[in-house]
């Protein structure tokens, strides 16, 4: 071998490290699909506990976290053991007894979408970073816009990571509409936001984030169940104007997180149109009723809104997170963000829109793919059947409660949320103690809400596995929890 050839061999670059090895991928995926398949099957059949409550210190030991962080070396075999322990210590949203929070029981297609994103990592806020993902998101947004009742040509939106960020983004659009110079000069001190006390916590949080301050959220008069009294809205607006304040937006619920009840969107929307006010509808949870002809009337008037938030990771069965910010005039969303970044935005041929210009996020996951795959797999009608079924099951729970004199409930449900309690355990500390007992028992996971100034147990029917026999078993378990709480004093 000549010296030249020897030098060339010695200078050859080392074998690349960190690349995926096909055999390793196949072994790991075999473990993942088997473990997750068992997990979903067991959960849907109601096997095992709904949720676990070990402390972080206990869980760290169970999962050997410090050893794995320190030493590494996990492979498919050890992944199998770790994943088994990990899944046992989480919360089973597919379980029929899961009736707690408003998080989706994710459908299979959405899970596949998460896998695609995890492998490809197309951060598609910039079109060149994921043209297919951006195009899918635009198609999904157009579909949601059409369900709201706006013309697709002028309306638009974007998907973001969660309803809280979606509400913040909507408020930024409202701020840009009401105060065009706010991006450069800041939010004027006289700006206020009108919202019911029952609005989601992210509304007040968003007001603080964008510079209004949470004290600038003026409560709208509501009835005993937290629904806006439409006749009072104009009076509140006038009272604020007399104080030298300008109403930036009016917020309504569709539906309220704590109760699942809908505001009168048509009434509030008409007042906002007459007074020239931005109308924002937080339909994060209840917007999916738009897919059901028999339920759509509960959102009558949503087409009067200037902005709407609608979460796919609630009743559209995508995994967390995928929330839509929808605006009646797409230009209003584009005006909300007026920042320049010459390393990202410059004159070239990109082929499509940069969605970064519509959101707080600099990089964004392929959120639209999850919802698109659910639609492609189940069809709009299939998703509508799921929504109708969960609403119907919740209403059936209310009927069972009404038929039992030992329970009380404050209202007839309008969604898949039901509040109730045993008549002989009405006190707040008893509600909390019963919930804790149920979680420790392992068969059911409930939340709680304050309605009419008092605390109630809250069931949110999310899992398709929750059926009639689940409801009967739930009421029996709650009765036993009430007895245990009374016996403990």
From TrEMBL:
One of its GO terms (biological process) is carboxylic acid metabolic process. InterPro entries: PyrdxlP-dep_de-COase (IPR002129), PyrdxlP-dep_Trfase (IPR015424), PyrdxlP-dep_Trfase_major (IPR015421). Coiled coil: none annotated. Its cofactor is pyridoxal 5'-phosphate. One of its GO terms (molecular function) is pyridoxal phosphate binding. Keywords: Decarboxylase, Lyase, Pyridoxal phosphate. GO terms for cellular component: cytoplasm. Belongs to the group II decarboxylase family. This is L-2,4-diaminobutyrate decarboxylase.
């Amino acid at each position: 071998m000549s010296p030249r050839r020897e030098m060339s061999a010695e200078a050859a670059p080392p074998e690349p490290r960190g690349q995926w090895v096909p055999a390793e991928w196949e072994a790991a995926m075999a473990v993942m699909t088997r473990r997750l398949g068992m997990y979903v099957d067991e959960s849907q059949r109601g096997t095992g506990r709904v949720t676990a409550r070990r402390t972080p210190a206990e869980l760290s030991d169970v999962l050997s976290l410090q050893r794995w962080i320190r030493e590494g070396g996990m492979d498919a075999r050890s992944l199998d053991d770790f994943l088994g322990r990990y899944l046992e210590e989480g919360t089973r949203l597919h379980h029929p007894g899961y009736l707690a929070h408003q998080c989706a029981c994710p459908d299979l297609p959405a899970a596949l979408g998460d896998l695609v994103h995890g492998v490809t990592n197309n951060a598609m806020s910039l079109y060149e970073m994921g043209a297919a993902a951006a195009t899918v998101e635009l198609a999904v947004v157009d579909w949601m816009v059409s369900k709201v009742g706006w013309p697709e040509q002028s309306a638009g939106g974007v998907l973001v990571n969660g309803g809280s960020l979606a509400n913040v983004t909507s408020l930024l659009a409202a701020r840009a509409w009401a105060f065009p110079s706010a991006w450069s000069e800041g939010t004027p001190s006289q700006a206020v936001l009108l919202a019911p006390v029952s609005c989601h916590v992210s509304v007040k949080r968003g007001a603080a984030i964008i510079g209004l301050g949470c004290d600038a959220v003026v409560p709208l008069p509501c009835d005993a169940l937290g629904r806006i009294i439409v006749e009072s809205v104009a009076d509140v607006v006038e009272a604020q104007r007399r104080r030298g304040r300008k109403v930036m937006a009016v917020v309504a619920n569709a539906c309220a997180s704590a109760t699942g009840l809908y505001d009168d969107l048509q009434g509030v929307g008409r007042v906002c149109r007459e007074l020239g006010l931005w109308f924002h509808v937080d339909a994060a949870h209840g917007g999916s009723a738009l897919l059901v002809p028999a339920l759509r009337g509960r959102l009558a008037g949503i087409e009067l809104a200037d902005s709407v938030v609608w979460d796919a990771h609630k009743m559209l069965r995508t995994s967390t997170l995928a929330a839509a910010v929808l605006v009646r005039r797409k230009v209003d969303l584009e005006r909300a963000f007026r920042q320049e970044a010459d390393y990202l935005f410059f004159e070239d041929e990109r082929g499509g829109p940069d969605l970064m210009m519509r959101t707080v996020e600099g990089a964004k996951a392929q959120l639209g793919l999850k919802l698109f795959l659910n639609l492609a797999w189940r069809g709009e009608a299939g998703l509508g059947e799921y929504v109708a079924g969960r609403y119907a099951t919740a209403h059936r729970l209310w009927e069972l409660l009404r038929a039992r004199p030992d329970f009380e409930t404050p209202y007839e449900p309008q969604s898949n949320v039901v509040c109730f309690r045993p008549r002989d355990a009405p006190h707040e500390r008893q509600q909390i103690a019963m919930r804790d007992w149920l979680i420790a028992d392992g068969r059911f996971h409930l939340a709680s809400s304050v309605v009419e100034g008092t605390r109630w147990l809250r069931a949110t029917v999310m899992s398709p596995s929750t059926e009639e026999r689940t409801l009967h078993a739930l009421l029996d378990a709650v009765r036993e929890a009430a007895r245990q709480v009374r016996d403990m004093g």
